[in-house]
Amino acid sequence: MRILHTSDWHIGRTFHGVDLLADQAAALAAVAEVVAERGVDVVVVPGDIYDRSIPSADAVAVCNAGLEAIRAAGAVIIATSGNHDSPVRLGSGAAFAAHGGLHLITRVAQVDRPVVLNDAHGPVAFYGIPYLEPEITRAELDVPGARSHQEILDAAMAKVQAEAAGRDARTVVLAHAFVVGGEPTESERSISVGGVETVAATTFGGADYVALGHLHSPQTVSEHVRYSGSLLPYSFGERSHRKAMWLVDLDETGLASVDRVDLPVVRELTQLTGNLDDLLADPAHENAEEHYVAAVLTDRARPVDAMRRLQERFPHAVHVQWERPASESEGSYREKVRGRTDFEIASSFLTDVRSEPSTRETGWFEQALRDGDRRRGIGDESRRGDSGRDERADVPA
Q1: DSSP three-state, residue 313
Q2: What is the DSSP secondary-structure string of 9-38?
Q3: pLDDT tens string 184-236
Q4: Residues 6+ positions from 241 with CB-CB distance below 8 Å
Q5: Which positions ≥6 away from 308 have C-beta within 8 Å?
């Protein structure tokens, strides 16, 4: 049996406010192409189908179109809910969908009810473990004292192993969890709510293959325990990642081989650093003009309308930040103000946080400082009398 392991689609996610639905539709179309070209029997998706528990109508349409294309390409689909999904909404109509080849596993009660498919060597049992929040699921799993994800996954896998022991079948487990040995990126949401979120890889002992979801980079925890990573990069920290899927072959004895299948790059991510004028003029950045761009600006003064100007050359620029050159902020506050007048300190402050003050702003500073000096002089003159207290306090209101 040939299995394609993909996960963490996050349909409906935005990237720094930019709609990614077109990119996600292109990536799902690529998944369907792999299914057709490589003769895939089953596509497994261990969680985070959607990015939100209540996805938009457009997100649902993109997801449905992707599922239909994968099914039409010839593969059965088995998916679980992740921490971003609503188990109830995702699992709605699951029994009906299963008749069409889409098996949705979203409830605790389903963990020991495998989807059983057959190939030339006999049955393969697919067990789905959706994201299980300890506080919500410990009673149903009969571990009322459980607080950690390790305890919850141990209980879920005990049910899986007990059910599998009574079958003569090869086993595949889908799980949405943070397994020790996996490396997180910037774009995952923590799954810890008052407890320890990591679980040991040995938790999944006995399975021929374990398809993991949650972490967004493709990685191998062990030969038979793997993360496929997300469908697209969802943070600039992932700009060096090549998104991929795992093509898993089972023979009559179990796991035969696992091959990596790279997903096409829909739109690359680039981070640029430098002076804004240089970034807009330097021909070396020509290849980034169609990328999603994050710019770190190092101009001495904060550029005005930086994003608009940046998007004139890089229309897909999505993030910009200004970092003052290090030399501008060296030294302690005491060193900076030693021997300087109030006017020099005020002018320097404005230069540090924005830019050098204009002639008009300089006039405002000088006037404000003169007014302050005059008020202090009035206050001193008003303090008379042997007691040293301000006699104005005795004047009736």
Answers
A1: helix
A2: --BT-EETTEE-HHHHHHHHHHHHHHHHHH
A3: 766 666 554 444 588 999 999 999 999 999 999 999 999 999 999 999 999 99
A4: 185, 216, 217, 218, 229, 233
A5: none
